[in-house]
Amino acid sequence: MKGRYGRFGGQYVSEMLMPALQELEEAYEKIVPDPGFKKEYQRLLKDYAGRPTPMYHAERLSQEVGCRVYLKREDLVCGGSHKLNNTLGQALLAKRMGKRRVITETAAGQHGLATIMAAKVCGLDAEIFMGVKDIKRQASNVKKMKLLGAQITPVEIGSGVLKDAVSDTLREWASCSQDTLYLMGSTVGPHPFPALVGEFQSVIGREARSQFQEREGGLPDAVIAAGSGGSNALGAFRAFLDEDDVRLYFVEGGGETLGAGNSAAAFQLGSPGVIHGAVMQVLQDMNGQIMPSRTRSAGLNYPARGPEISHLCEIGRVKACYAFDGEVFEAVETMCRTEGLVPALETAHAVAYVLNHRVEFSGDEAIIINYSGRGDKDMEAIMRHVYGS
Amino acid sequence: MDLEETLLGLRRRREGALMPHVYYGDPDAHFSHRLIETLAGSGADLIEFGIPFSDPTADGPTFQAACERALRNGTTPSSCITGMKELSKDLGVPFIVTTYYNIPYVAGVGAFLREIKAAGAQGIIVPNLPIEEAGPLLEEGERQGIHVILLVAPTTTEERLRKIAEMASGFIYVMNFEGVTGARDSLRDSTLRLVRRVRRHTGIPVLAGFGISRREQAEALVSAGADGVIAGSVFTKIYEARLDDPTEALPEVAEMVRELKLGCVKKQRPSPSV
After folding, report:
1. Are residues A171 and A230 in the same domain?
2. Which of A119, A298, A146 lies closest to A226, judged by CA?
3. Do the interacting molecules here have an ipTM over 0.85?
4. Which of these, A40, A258, A270, B233, has the minimum number of CB atoms within 10 Å of its CB?
5. Are residues A131 and A154 in the same domain?
6. How far is CA A136 from the centre of its chain?
7. What is the pTM of this model?
8. Of B71, B102, B131, which has the smallest distance from its Cβ to A275's Cβ?
9. Among A176, A198, A220, where does a domain finish?
10. pLDDT tens, residue by residue, A159-202
């Protein structure tokens, strides 16, 4: 079956969207492997996005953790997060498919920002759906997106967060798929999106693997990444999936407590369900109604985990972990204190997990944290936490 | 009344069917009973009985809001099924259940179909289940004697249309517009063309929906060869304006049913050549 990862994945969309998905599948198979496409994509990754990103041996953080910690510096990708790796690929694909416009949704605003940047580079229009709550929480990214010419459409349905924005973007796509591509931001949704996004993000792990090899020789003992849909995590993990000795950790948003309505930890509290076009691990009640997720990190505030990461966690190849909001803010402070870096709240989840589970990483080990983004967008929340008010 | 007999009887009389679509439990179960009784009593030939889902991505804002209201007051799939059992016993019209795939997926597809069948449903529509993923539902539907109603869209290719026509049972649901459900004013020519396209592939009844809010639209669809029309948001729009006492809106709902039904019978349908 197409687009299946164990029992996860598939194409659960309206008949209305099937021709659009099939068109995208064909484009994915024909255009993405094309040498001309590859060359142009590589050029943009290098000259526009700033790849390869460095891998930094964070010595002072390593002392706190008690083993050698390397940060894969995706915060240095232009725009401040890994998101541009994917949007450049898909915008280029949209252009080659003859589309004139892309639509998408965003929560933390990082994907929205990366989308309008990539759209500009490729000469496309962009409309970005964003929950009303997220618009408020991520004001600085909203300003940047508007400045770059994105049309921001507020989403008021449901709880006004990412889940609702995805629903509205799917609706919009059903009515305009002929000239518009849904530029999916994470490894979620119907096939071929999870495969496509995973492929564009896998540059992270390929670089990290060879950088680690150069620095340390051999393979890292563990790779740790935070996520919800799973794009930065899969991007980092894919290069190591076949290496059984490399432990992989996926850290989701624990929220305040592991209780219904207080968390985004779908691997702890959810079950397989059909939402937004695929079977995914999702927060839901016993009747199959999707439950809202909750975490201070807008980018992790999505109730579903993408099909591939759902499968990898189910079969035990990846360990499903979580970090609570309180631990995350402590991790931000630790990063500031030790390395002079302000991480995005999403990224801080991965750091928090390592700091709070030092026993899992012994002294002679070397690990890679996928340092997925910088915290400029979260300054207000971080300042409130540090200084109160 | 049996679904196939109902549709064949209408076809013999050269009359279009009207299938109103509502979400049960909006704003509460009591009103839903009155509403569905009104629909059936005013000329509806079938009832599309919606079981609310939290994220109805193939529906527009009107039905999204209806689902949210229903879920907020505690509507569950089993309260819907209980309600449908009472209604289908009392009213003589066939009931077709509409819900999103996660509801049967979580309940177990076989168990879910057994339950709705026992409550009087004769068919099921799952708007987020294209034929590529419909295998388990089609298999269970056949085993349990529930028609799985398949959908086609203006974007559906000839090749897909042929496959869908082969697997179809009960009737085929033609989606008028590219997009989602919601009352609209005009009906594009592409819809009328689509009805004719489907006709060329199959003799199975064809019902057309999405955006139906006026008598002339029903008329145009039926005279283009549709066996009937499906109208949904238009009824919800009438009562959502009076949510404090939605029963006040029932006379207007009844009037709308009569209007649309008039559109289904006014112009003579083309003679049933298939």
Report:
1. no
2. A298
3. yes
4. A258
5. yes
6. 21
7. 0.95
8. B102
9. A198
10. 888 888 998 999 899 889 999 999 999 999 999 999 999 999 99
